[in-house]
Amino acid sequence: MNEFVTGADVGMQVLRTAFLAFAVVLAVICVTDWAVRTRKISPFNAVARFFRSTIDPFIAPVERKVIRAGGTPASAPLWALVAVVVGGIIIITILEFIRSEAVRAIGYSNQGSAGVFRLLVSWTFGILKIALLVRVVSSWLPVSPYSRWISWSFRLTEPILAPLRRVMPNLGAFDITPIIAYFLLGLVQSFLLRLV
Fold first, then answer.
1. Which domain covers residue 164, as residue numbers?
2. pLDDT truncated to tens, each residue of the chain (196 aa)?
3. How many domains does the chain have?
4. What is the pLDDT at residue 21?
5. What is Dmax (Cα atoms) for the chain?
6. Contact, 1 vs 115, CB < 8 A?
7. Domain boundary, last residue among 73, 89, 110
8. Residues 162, 69 within the same domain
9. Does residue 45 sit in the same domain as residue 19?
10. What does pTM read for this prediction?
11. Are residues 130 and 91 in the same domain?
12. d(CA 100, CA 84)
């Protein structure tokens, strides 16, 4: 197990370093492309011609989305940089989560059937808590609950929230049932983990 943890840590460090280097190079490219688009760099020099012919085709999909959202085409390189940085952070976070869950799974598997039970309980309640968080955050955004990215959270949490709504008093615009459900899930999880 120590070899796996060491290898995973080294792999994550290499990935972070590679992502940082990629982000720095991309930042230079995007800022230069932004400077060309906003005419901070002369549009007739060799750098501007290179960026218009080589870099702009890669930025074109982002530019179309920015224009549809009401933005200016000149800001497309900066939005592309933001998308890559946020995407990289999300990817690194997901990989670190997978690494920690793999380490936990290996540790629990060494404990026999009790460890497997603990692992299954932890994963089940972890997924339910994530679904609650996704549902709450998506309710703040203009996202349809039937969207393929969000609907899974509604399917997982509605059997928990519907009975709570019948019991809880109505507070008008505020729905506190997800908060109560989150704490109840934590209590049930700790109770089940104490059984073994």
1. 112-196
2. 677 778 878 888 898 899 889 989 988 888 888 888 888 888 788 888 888 888 888 888 888 888 888 888 888 888 888 888 888 888 888 888 888 888 888 888 888 888 889 889 988 998 999 999 988 888 887 888 888 888 899 999 999 999 998 888 777 777 788 889 999 999 999 999 888 7
3. 2
4. 92
5. 73
6. no
7. 110
8. no
9. yes
10. 0.66
11. no
12. 24
38 & 125 share domain: no
Residue 37 pLDDT: 83
Q: d(Cα 6, Cα 147) in Å, to the nearest integer?
A: 39
Q: Are residues 136 and 102 in the same domain?
A: no
> Which of 110, 80, 155 minimizes the C-alpha distance to 1?
110
Q: Which residues contact 5 (CB under 8 A, 6 or more apart)?
A: 103
Rounded to 10°, the helix 76-109/56-68 angle is: 90
Place of tokens 């908060």: 179
Residues 116, 183: one domain? Answer: yes
Considering the domain architecture, whether residues 62 and 34 belong to the same structural domain is answered as yes
Give the Cα separation of 129 and 177 in Å (integer). Answer: 13
